[in-house]
């Protein structure tokens, strides 16, 4: 190192350890020592961009688009009653079976209300699950923000609201637990306004608030009514046919079944036998499982579904694409792997640090 620094210094070029050299300078200096610099990899074209483009074009043209059911994410502070509200809507009993009564993963369910489907995503309210709340908000069309009327606006209420705002989706506030003697709807509304800037409609603002009791069922119909109303205004569309794509909201490694991914289909039809890619994991759909644990043959836009068949657990942020064949899916996953490695490797940086250059 010091020899090169000295040599260059003698030529009037001042180099410092840690300095980043341009490719040109690197070549220049290397040639003085009879070395050649080889760039291992030029920036290649991202093959995912071509995939995305075909969907984007369809959305731009708009002619093939049709309505799809809304995807509604239920968010809010821990214990404010999200799972109980969803149980009430689904006539199920998830909340009671949860360990410590705390939701620890994302659950996705579809219900049909007067012939209209709604997909619900439940999220945990415990502060440790920020990431899951962020993910839930990204995959959704509408957020139902649950605020317990006996507790008011709390830290994760604020956090959840911020995720919804970032995702730029409409918010419906469900003021829950109104059956409790210490429930204070007015105080909750005041806090919504002062802490979140969400001024209720009946106070002259434009925030939809619905008083509800997930326990007694009072107001639950109104929540559903508002969801259908808001989703009509939001004009939620999809490409109904062709290769599916969807967003992964949860994934894990199952001892018996291997990598499992829960996704919400956004476009197209996802079928058993389809070749899929999600980031660096590839595969073929061996089975599709709906929320009731039933095997289904295909899934349509806004359907929540579990895929068995990925070769590794896909990232929860990733988008699943159906592609023509296994080669394509492998090539795309390889590309993603390469990108990941690139981020770690030094050989590919266009700028080379002096020490790295010298240790080559
Ligand atoms: P996390 O998922 O852990 O954030 O909680 P959660 O928001 O899903 O709350 P959950 O539905 O598990 O309810 C928490 C507790 O509040 C449970 O004991 C419920 O029975 C109770 N609860 C939920 N809704 C109501 C309600 O409307 N009234 C009353 N009185 N209790 C309720
Ligand atoms: Mg819950």
UniProtKB/TrEMBL annotation:
In the UniProt record, does the keyword Cytoplasm occur? yes
Ranges for domain Tr-type G come to: 67-235
Superkingdom, taxonomy of origin: Bacteria
- Cell compartments where the protein resides: Cytoplasm
Annotated positions binding GTP: 76-83, 122-126, 176-179
Q: Name one GO cellular component term.
A: cytosol
Predominant location category: cytoplasm
Q: Which GO terms describe its molecular function?
A: GTP binding; GTPase activity; translation initiation factor activity
- What keywords sit in the KW lines? Coiled coil, Cytoplasm, GTP-binding, Initiation factor, Nucleotide-binding, Protein biosynthesis
Give the protein family. Belongs to the TRAFAC class translation factor GTPase superfamily. Classic translation factor GTPase family. IF-2 subfamily.
What job does this protein perform?
One of the essential components for the initiation of protein synthesis. Protects formylmethionyl-tRNA from spontaneous hydrolysis and promotes its binding to the 30S ribosomal subunits. Also involved in the hydrolysis of GTP during the formation of the 70S ribosomal complex.
Record protein name field: Translation initiation factor IF-2
Q: Which residues of the full protein are shown?
A: 121 to 480 of 694
């Amino acid at each position: 190192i010091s020899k090169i620094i000295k040599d260059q210094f003698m030529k009037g070029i001042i180099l410092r350890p840690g300095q980043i050299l341009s490719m040109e300078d690197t070549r220049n200096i290397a040639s003085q020592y009879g070395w050649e610099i080889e760039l291992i990899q030029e920036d290649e074209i991202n093959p995912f961009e071509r995939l995305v483009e075909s969907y984007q074009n369809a959305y731009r043209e708009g002619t093939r688009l049709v309505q799809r059911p809304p995807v509604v994410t239920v968010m809010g502070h821990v214990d404010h009653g999200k799972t109980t509200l969803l149980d009430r809507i689904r006539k199920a009993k998830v909340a009671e079976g949860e360990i410590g009564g705390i939701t620890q993963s994302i659950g996705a369910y579809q219900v049909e209300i007067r012939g209209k489907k709604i997909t619900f995503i439940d999220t945990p309210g415990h502060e440790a699950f920020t990431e899951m709340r962020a993910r839930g908000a990204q995959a959704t069309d509408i957020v139902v923000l649950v605020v317990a009327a006996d507790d008011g606006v709390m830290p994760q209420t604020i956090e959840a609201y911020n995720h919804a705002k970032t995702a730029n989706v409409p918010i419906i506030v469900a003021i829950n637990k109104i059956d409790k003697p210490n429930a204070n709807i007015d105080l909750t509304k005041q806090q919504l306004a002062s802490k979140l800037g969400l001024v209720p409609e009946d106070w002259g603002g434009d925030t939809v608030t619905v008083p509800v009791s997930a326990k007694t069922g009072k107001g639950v119909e109104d929540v559903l009514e508002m969801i259908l109303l808001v989703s009509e205004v939001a004009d939620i569309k999809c490409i109904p046919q062709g290769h599916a794509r969807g967003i992964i909201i949860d994934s894990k490694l199952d001892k018996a079944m291997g990598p499992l991914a829960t996704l919400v289909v956004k476009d197209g039809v996802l079928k058993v036998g389809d070749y899929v890619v999600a980031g660096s994991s590839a595969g073929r759909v061996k089975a599709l499982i709906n929320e009731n644990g039933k095997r289904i043959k295909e899934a349509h836009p806004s359907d929540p579904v579990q895929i068995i068949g990925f070769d590794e657990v896909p990232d929860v942020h990733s988008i699943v694409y159906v592609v023509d064949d296994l080669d394509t899916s492998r090539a795309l996953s390889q590309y993603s792997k390469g990108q990941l490695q690139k981020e770690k490797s030094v050989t590919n940086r266009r700028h080379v640090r002096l020490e790295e250059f010298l240790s080559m």
